[in-house]
Amino acid sequence: MTVPNFVAVLVLRLRMILDGIAALFYRIPAAILSAKGSGLKAKLAAASQDPRFLRLAFRALRAFLPNLRVRYKFGSAYPNNGTALVTRHDDVIEVLDRNADFEVVYEPRMRAITGGENFFLGMQDTALYQRDVSNMRLAMRRDDVAAIVEPLARRLAEKLVAEKAGRIDVPPELSLPVPTAIVTDYFGVTGAPDGDLMHWATLMFRYLFSDVRADPVLDKDALDAAAACRSVIDAAIAKRKASGERKDDVLGRCLVMQAAGLPGMDDLGIRNNLIGLVIGAIPTISKAAVQALDQLLDRPEALVSAEQAAHDGNDALFAAHVFEAFRFNPVNPFKFRRAARDTTIAAGHFRARKIPKDTMVLAANLSAMFDPLKIEAPESFRTDRPWGDYMLWGYGLHGCFGAYINAAVLPAILKPLVMKPGLRRAAGEAGQIATGGTGFPQHFVVEWE
Ligand code: HEM
User: Fold this and answer.
1) Is residue 276 in contact with ligand 1, taking CB distance under 6 Å?
2) Tens of pLDDT along the chain (449 residues)?
3) I need a surface site. Which of 4, 16, 351, 410 has the fewest CB within 10 A?
4) Which CATH superfamily is domain 65-447 in?
5) Mutational test site, ligand 1, from 393, 404, 440, max ligand atoms within 8 Å of CB
């Protein structure tokens, strides 16, 4: 290491510690005190939902306890004997790269949703995982994004925004209908009212990824939704076969693969894969679009520059604004993994941490994207970041299957809105994201001239 490099690293680390101290003793207490609610508990609960608070908490953890392990169990939805929170960029990547040591946990709930079989996000790196992912990549091709998916999303978003006179409630009127149309028109999952598909997919997503305490009411609703969704997919498969229609969509290609005798492509296999993709697509795209828009509206300069890029037809620059905004509040701030054996994270470093078998390891992607040791000027809103700085939809083996769809569809949803002159939040509560306690945006009203 050269002397200038040594000094630069020292300054960076010193600054990280000072920022950590400021976060711990001033900014975090201030954020809690200014949160809504009466009483410390209510304020803490409200603050923990705010991405600004989470980012501050991660800042302090990265500085002082980058790999925290506590005996406290991480809920009961997935068995575990304690929780580890991993916050530095390098360590988050390490956890998500070491699939044999840090396993995905979702299998039991995936099986409950499919009514028996696992879906590939619930599988370890097995032959079955590779078979199912490969099959679905043949059915859902990268070329489709530019040829089918982006135009579909763009046209529908433009139409939905054009129909409105100066005011739109984004989730029900824009960000949910677009991915739902992708599911019906491109996946081929037809036969259910759009509202039902959105509702079912959101319930199933919550059951899998956010129902940490295994709430019995939510669990029942989600499993009822899963049963309804399975019936709709079964009926869509049966109808397509009976009609002999040869539509070139995802379901149509699955049936071509079935006719060719590909393993894993019987009717049940097709249904299992499609239900997983429906869950992956609808609530995530909607939440991502709403949260990115919310962050843009918080930054008037960024909003003006995004609007300019959109008017200039500079789609890449417009998309860069959307991804950067989304970095400040991604759909999930961390990914779950469970330690498959006693192991160590960051071995050979001062921050090395022993992780006992069965610890639930939370790999904090939100924190990784703000780690000053890896990300240049992480607190600044910048549109020139290398793509590798982002961890917006997972990383590694289980990184999002729909990654290329997301990268095209999120800007397509937001562009017609951001192009509206004077785009702003509606006054009062209506202009804030309302989740109704679900964690998923239900209402968020914006207005324009
Ligand atoms: C902006 C929208 C989206 C976000 C934020 C998102 C987020 C993610 C994340 C974080 C993961 C990794 C989960 C983990 O490692 O535990 C993931 C995986 C996955 N996503 Fe997405 N997703 C989005 C859209 C989609 C879409 C549109 C689809 C379907 C076309 C989809 C299907 C999947 C599937 C199947 C996996 C599992 C991949 C595997 O196990 O190999 N997602 N997604």
Assistant:
1) yes
2) 688 889 989 999 999 999 999 999 999 999 999 998 888 999 998 898 899 999 999 999 999 999 999 999 999 999 999 999 999 999 999 999 999 999 999 999 999 999 999 999 999 999 999 999 999 999 999 999 999 999 999 999 999 999 999 999 999 999 999 999 999 999 999 999 989 999 999 999 999 999 999 999 999 999 999 999 999 999 999 999 999 999 999 999 999 999 999 999 999 999 999 999 999 999 999 999 999 999 999 999 999 999 999 999 999 999 999 999 999 999 999 999 999 999 999 999 999 999 999 999 999 999 999 999 999 999 999 999 999 999 999 999 999 999 999 999 999 999 999 999 999 999 999 999 999 999 999 999 999 99
3) 4
4) Cytochrome P450 (1.10.630.10)
5) 393
Considering only CA atoms, which residue is closest to atom 3 of ligand 1?
A: 284
Which ligand 1 atom sits nearest the alpha carbon of residue 337?
A: 16
Q: What is the pTM of this model?
A: 0.97
Ligand 1 contact, 285 CB (< 6 A): yes
Pairing of strands 360-363, 83-86: parallel
Under a CB-based contact definition with an 8 Å cutoff, are residues 84 and 362 in contact?
yes
CB 222 within 8 A of CB 204: yes
* Ligand 1 lined by 411 (C-beta under 6 Å): no
3-state helix, strand, coil in the chain (%, to 5): 60, 10, 35
Number of the ligand 1 atom closest to the C-alpha atom of 120: 40
Ligand 1 touching residue 401 (CB < 6 A): yes
- Assess whether the C-beta atom of 378 lies below 6 angstroms from ligand 1: no
Q: How many residues does the chain have?
A: 449
